[in-house]
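Hey team,

Filing this mostly as a record. A colleague (T.K.) asked me to run one chain through the structure pipeline before their review meeting, and I want the input and output archived in the tracker in case anyone asks later how it was produced. No errors, nothing strange. Just documentation.

Input sequence:
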Amino acid sequence: MTNRIALVLGLMIVALFLADAVFMSGQLPVFLGKEMASLIEYLSFWR
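Output structure:
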């Protein structure tokens, strides 16, 4: 991955969180945290 691609991906992620905070009441980090916890629990079952 080149520096330019990494920078663009990073800016897109920041823009996504910023748009969520401004337009959609900022619930994206909470949703992603809950889904990540669910994924970790699911994967630990198959370990």
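Quick notes for T.K.: The chain has one domain: 3-45. The longest helix spans residues 3-23.
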